[in-house]
Amino acid sequence: MSILTLDDYFYNMKHTLALFVLLLVSCKTDKKTDTAQTNDIKTETSTNNDVKLEIHDFNGLEPYLNRTDDKIYVVNFWATWCAPCIKELPHFEALNANYKGKNIEVILVSLDFPHQFETKLKPYIKEHDLKSKIVVLDDVDMNTWIPKVDENWDGAIPVTIIYNKDKREFYDQTFTYESLENELKQFLK
Amino acid sequence: MKLFKTLSILAIVLVASAFSVNTTVASGYEVGDIATDFKLKNIDGNIVSLADYTSAKGFIVIFTCNTCPYAVQYEDRIIALDKKYADKGFPVIAIMPNDPEVQPGDSMEAMKARAVSKGFTFPYLMDEGQKIYPQYGATKTPHVYLLEKTNKGNVVRYIGAIDDNYKDASAVNTKYVEDAVDALLEGNNVPETKTRAIGCTIKVKNNN
Known about the structure:
Number of helices of chain A: 7
Radius of gyration of chain B: 16 Å
Structural class of chain B: alpha+beta
Number of strands of chain B: 10
Low-confidence stretches of chain A: 1-43
CATH topology of the largest domain in chain B: Glutaredoxin
Strand order of the largest sheet of chain A: 1-2-5-4-3-7-8
Oligomer: heterodimer
Order of helices and strands of chain B: HEEEEHHEHEHEEEHE
Distance between the termini of chain B: 44 Å
Number of domains of chain B: 2
Order of helices and strands of chain A: HHEEHEHEHEHEEEH
Helix content of chain A: 40-55%
Strand order of the largest sheet of chain B: 1-9-8-4-5-6-2-3
Strand content of chain A: 15-25%
């Protein structure tokens, strides 16, 4: 089989549905292989201002996106430099508080820059007394990991995933408390 | 394995495009589409159009701004792109897509100041009225659209990130934009036509 370029494939896209399905399968297989090969989970921690950060590369973060227990997970990707993220963050905190003990876990995945962990992220966490689980994703190879979070994500934040072991929704949008709770309720039915 | 990798990248691209076709009404350009020209105001007060560049072979159009930390991380690399490729026929055209009323740090005055302090060698245009970025489908800053001038118009050849390491220019493994421009200059197909990176959402009224 000769290697066609992406451009060629693109132009023929509409006529290659069968190929597409085939490729999708290849893609998934390949991903699984990749994960198996690079399974050295890097977890670093550092302390300052009483705030301890849990820092992962994508391999370290991935388990948080794929839990198979009975909980509902609400995973929000944010950063202190992202104004719309900061605006909706209190709604995730409120959800976390209001559904405490109800088998729901809110996970806030920070995409803050490493050089701002001490100057921005930790002070923010402390000042706002964030109670939700916070993990930091520090992995520069975005083109590899972004599609693994969701195929439909182009990289703008904030985004949110709500999932349980049976169902998963990806939200490329910002939330009010009401709209966030409404989405969560779809999982509580 | 290389074929496998090519196929997996391709599958991702196809999935992404399939989804955007299905879920979004105005999803912007895909690779292969003809990109619109524009008339946007530069920091020097002049109006800039792609059509002004009669001898260009194409354009490195970059939606970027003053205020996004990722855009700031890439400022020096954007300047380097223009210095490397403007003379070869692929100048950088930077467009600031944010609404400056929402993001005052991206006002025309602030754009001028940044361009002067960094020594921008390329136009830095304000997308006044925010009419152009939605047509391209830019969703964040920085967001690159590499265009190749053809007799049909300016064809989109690459969409995505500048390279694969925002943090450290010296640790970059793949220079997506440079690889794409080099391929076009050599008459080859662009090796990777679409990539993704984290960026700041484009600031508009209501969503902020």
